[in-house]
Amino acid sequence: MMIRNYLKIAFRNLVKHKTNTIINLLGLTVAFTICLLLVISVYYEFSYNKYHVNGKDIYRPYFSQQTPEGKQLQPTMPEPMLKALKDQYSAVKYGSRYKRMGCELEYNGKHYMKQITYVDADFFRMFTFPLIKGNAVNALESQNSIVLNEEVATAMFGEEDPIGKQVRMQAGGEWKVFMVSGVGEKIPENSSFGYQAAIRFENDDNYPNVMNEWESTNHDLFIQLAPGTDPRKFEAGLQAFINKQYESNINDLKRDGARPTATGQYLELLMQPFLKMHTDTSMRGVGTVISRTYLNMLLAVACFVMLIACFNFINLSVGRSFTRSREVGLRKTLGAMPRQVAIQFWGEAALICLLSLAISVPLFYFLLPHYRELFGSSVTTHILFQPSTIACIFGCFLLITIIAGGYPAWIMTRMDAVKILKGKLRLKTSGSLRNGLIISQFAIAILLISCTLVTWKQLNYLRNQPLGYNSSQIVSIPVGTEVDGRDALQLLRQKLTQEPAVLGVTGLSTNLGVGLDGGSYSWGTGFDYKERAVNMAWMNVGYDFVKTMDLKLISGRDFSPAFSTDSNSIVINEQMARQLGEKDPIGVKLVHDTALAPMTVIGVVKDFNFQSLHTKVEPLGLVMYKPMPVNVLLVKVSPQKLPVIMDKLKAVWKEISPRTDFKGSFLDENINRQYDREERFTRIFVYAAIVAIVLSCLGLFALAILAIMQRTKEIGIRKALGASAGNIVQLITRDFVKLIFIAMVIATPTAYYFMNKWLEGFAFSIEIKWWWLLSAGLLALAVALCTIGYQSLKAALTNPVKSLKSE
d(Cα 775, Cα 453) in Å, to the nearest integer? Predict the structure, then answer.
């Protein structure tokens, strides 16, 4: 009965004070919805790989090398590493190498372009990739076994049972026969990696050449430690093995002036926890990664929006208590206990929070598809029903209800009933709490606006920064696996020879940017030159690469069919020339290793950004080395006939590779795809800044109404004594403007500090201008003045007689 009365009175008060109720409902609903979207997105990213039963015992070994230029991390491993670790360390329970390549599968005369994954027999024992058919323990026991995932198996076999069926696979130009030994379930989306078709690592065409080669690294390695093994002690125990196996490499590092670690090491083999791999951006390799800083900033944005809504709630509740003071005094006089008064006001807060949460859940479902599309998220609704998610939402609801409703309820219980009824009590609604909350609201809003401006400026800078080559006229075509890259390049040249809109054709081993096939990879190598270790990235290219890409040739020449020796030649960039230390490097011979003939430097090109602008330009060599593949074809086209030439390229590609989809894209599009994360980051800041300023101004609007109501008599007297409308507007807005200026003083240096920290993640970045941050504060001030100015002007134009009568 008592609870029903509380609810009835609470509902009645909410209906009576419609403006406050609508503003609080709107603010909290928007805040809850945004928090659900952002927090669940962060939860989803942190849930990566958590479904693996043995996940906490799995690690990815990586090299940490101290070079003269600083510390370098390398996650790829040499072929013999797995066997050596399993032979020498009993703590290694399971281990598997991991490498992916494109391949062509064939069954009953039908061909399928898929991705093959090279792994070891322990792969399905370590990782929780359940098999629908077959036994995970021995699925890859035989070297000619193949495990298909459910999607590939259905596409190839339909309703047939694939177990025991033979399929053929082409990779590296050779067909091999495999027997299907298992069919796996669909890989969860929150997985760093998976497989379409998995076979034993020994089937890699290049495996016999590198199986005992410790200097060649081309795959990731995962090991599972035995239960109870201390990973730090295991890691420390690896150092003796590394010191012995890589003694010559360590001596080279010492010779070249590398600085050792605090423990005196130059080369270490360390363990990266598998469950932290997705949020560790210090290394690339298998699987997608996302910065923990990025996720923490999403959580910060969610908290900021919720804080603004809560501050509105507290400010409006305390402000409204002025008009309800007589109600409280009467209740206390009639015998209401302080606890009952507190429950009444806290109940109203809880009711508004509950209504807001009830509205936000269906709104979350409605907005989720748009959110996924807009921000490139893969989050799904099932996360909402995880026990941990429900507990988190319930906990946040209680916390917000206590914070937003607790303080106003506490204020009400402290009122003196006698003073209230005698009219001698006045609440100081312009007190320090209200001012502090307004300052906090606008400081957050200005901070988000400032961050939006900086991220937007940096994104524009990344997209418009000259890269040193022509990206707008070059079409990038991934070759795929159906045809050999060099054959495809030769055929493409022949078929486009008479096409006037085609200005050049060449090839490349590594895509620039991120192509439509998702390809973005690089090759690196190192060798000794004049008793110094030299490291460089290298690309396998076709003839006329420098000319087609519009690279600036500083000295020497480009590759040309007129020179038969160009297969043993190299074109280097300025950084590589500096590393060699030669004034004129043309003609210098570089000995890579005993497997290669010396490479003669025939040209030096001006530095260009062949990687994203997150990294500085590294030493680079361009070669025409036959063992390296040509994975991408580059076509330079006339800008006047783009639609026509794209249709032509599609038709020609269909003739060259009938079973491979045409995935051509312009290089400038590939470059922009490198910065998708920054673009999503900017979008989130834009929307968060808009929400923050709107919610802040909604609260300011309601507070202005309350302030005017409380000063009605004062305004009437001032007008009667001759005050102008401008004087009244200035009187009302002055205090609010002061608070916003204080918020600017707090937010501006804070934004400058954090955005400078963010920009440190780029080798090329903008310099933050002070007037950008000032404009963010002035924008917030202008919006706030428009919000309170309307109410102030309305009060200033009211007849003073009405104002005095109201008192």
Answer: 9
Mean pLDDT within 613-639? 82
Look up tokens 């240096």; give the residue: 749
Q: Is 518 exposed, middle or buried (0-12, 13-18, 19+ CB in 10 A)?
A: exposed
- Region of 511 (left: φ > 0; alpha: ψ -120 to 50; beta: rest) is beta
Interval 69-98: pLDDT, tens = 778 888 889 999 999 999 999 999 999 999
Q: Which of 782, 787, 794, 492 is nearest to 634 (CA)?
A: 492
DSSP code of residue 278: G
How far apart (Å, rounded) are the C-alpha atoms in residues 395 and 475? 53
Contacts of 117 (CB under 8 A, 6+ apart): 98, 99, 100, 195, 196, 197, 198, 199
CA 355 to chain centre: 33
CA nearest 677: which of 281, 304, 331?
A: 281
Domain boundaries, the chain: 1-46+291-427, 60-272, 474-671
- Rounded CA-CA distance 750/451 in Å is 10
Q: 594 pLDDT exceeds 50?
A: no
pLDDT value at residue 9: 63
Secondary structure (DSSP) of 66-99: EETTEEEEE--EETTHHHHHHHH-TTEEEEEEEE
Among 121, 75, 116, 80, CA closest to 99: 116
Rounded Cα distance between 568 and 168, Å, is 36
C-alpha 310/C-alpha 695 separation (Å) is 10
Look at the block and give the residue holding tokens 């002007």. 793
* Cα distances (Å, whole numbers) of residue 41 to 35, 59, 364, 369, 379: 10, 25, 12, 13, 6
Helix (H) / strand (E) containing 198 = strand 197-200
Q: Quote the CA–CA distance of 524 and 655 in Å, as a whole number.
A: 34
How far is 408 from 393, CA to CA, in rounded Å? 23
End-to-end CA distance of the chain: 38
- Torsion 664-666-675-541 (CA) sign: positive
Q: Dihedral through CA 700, CA 702, CA 707, CA 710, nearest 10?
A: -170
Nearest to 81 by CA among 235, 213, 201: 213
DSSP percent split of the chain into helix, strand, coil, nearest 5: 50, 20, 30
| pTM (two decimals) | 0.78
Strand boundaries in 416-513, DSSP class E: 474-478, 502-508
- Residue range 18-61, pLDDT digits in tens: 777 787 888 888 888 888 888 888 888 888 999 999 999 999 99
Smallest CA-to-CA distance from 702 within 360, 319, 364 is with 319
CA separation, residue 628 to residues 90, 418, 508, 624, 716 (Å): 38, 91, 10, 8, 86
* Residue 218: predicted pLDDT: 79
Specify the DSSP element, H or E, that contains 319: helix 292-321
Q: What is the DSSP string of 211-249?
A: TT-SS-EEEEEEEEEPTT--HHHHHHHTHHHHHHHTHHH
- Residue 485, token pair as written in the block: 């890259």
